Amino acid sequence: MSRAIAVIGGTGPAGTGLALRWARAGETVIIGSRDSARADQTANMIRQRVGANARVSGMENSAACVASDLLMLTVPFEGQAALLKQLKPSIRAGSILIDATVPLAASVGGRASRTLGVWQGSAAQQTAELVPKGVSVVAAFQNVSADVLNGDLKEDVDCDVIVCSDDPNATQTAMELAVKIPRIRAIDGGKLENARIIEQITALLIGLNIRHKGHGGIRITGLPDAAYKTLAPQ
Amino acid sequence: MSRAIAVIGGTGPAGTGLALRWARAGETVIIGSRDSARADQTANMIRQRVGANARVSGMENSAACVASDLLMLTVPFEGQAALLKQLKPSIRAGSILIDATVPLAASVGGRASRTLGVWQGSAAQQTAELVPKGVSVVAAFQNVSADVLNGDLKEDVDCDVIVCSDDPNATQTAMELAVKIPRIRAIDGGKLENARIIEQITALLIGLNIRHKGHGGIRITGLPDAAYKTLAPQ
Question: Which single residue of A22, A52, A146, B214 could bond A13 by disulfide (Cβ 3.0 to 4.6 Å)?
């Protein structure tokens, strides 16, 4: 990627994990947080793990939106809508916003293995309603375990990332970003509306993790090789 | 299995495919159909493919329910409730009914890559409301490609079967049945309510199949070995 990736909500487990892996892959990453001091802390932690030449910095969320047109949103569902309304003036026209939000019932005190119904169909479709015109929303990375991302950097990530968007260029960008993380395969999952199923899968995986004490992910089998984007040619 | 498996709706692609694979594994299989002549035809076809010693017979659906207390339901969603109401007097107390039904929007003329909302939460939970008291409902096999099951018997099935039920004994039985099919792994997916997510995954896979021209399945990664039931010890 020539452009920086701004991880909005980058101090949480999912955001930190993605930022860590992308910094490790040599990408330029901006950690966004409500609190710029916390963002700096996370950036420093990532630099310590990846090495001094890691290109990672911390910013307040709205400054991060101004600084990049490639946004990765990793916030709990209960904060998603309010944050997007607040950030709306700062999100640049033409930006790509990748959303990993899952409407877990835990957002309202329920179980993380259950989901809430979202009027628009999915958290990602709610996001699409809240971003400025001309911003492309992509749903991706919901099913990747934050524990695995934040774990041993020598251990690859055994998970496929299904990418859904109504903008094929944005899908392409998110797929390229996904395969920067070793062993992740990216699959074009079609329109943004399909995010409603991918989001549910996260709740399933959380349930399986609780039941079986694991860090579940998914792989899609049975598609032709061309359907799987990987970093190195297969 | 010591008991016969009665596949209700066994002349459709999913039912025929499962029956074929179980007959091949040496199980005793009853093909159930609205029309006993069609059931016989399918049983004959399976015998031709598996060999003369295949233990497979055809029956009308209600006769198949009377003949076995291990039922595998593979009917399109639009016929599910009516069929269960009709079969209710024939389903034996203490039976296990494994349901692979998915509420695809295609049931009402919509797309097979979309689902309908079911009042009870899932097709399997609807089934649980319609069977006689004392019958244990299990949700399983929704994500296994019928094309793959019906394909070359030398080709194994690259898919995990997530099994959901409120009756642990019934879960166990369905898991044992799943791993009779080479390379399928069975995973305890917890309560029957979780079927709502597994059912959605089928619509996702159908969408991926259309988009990428494949026969998609899923594998769950990242759980400890003990979470995966396989036929041979790993």
Answer: A146
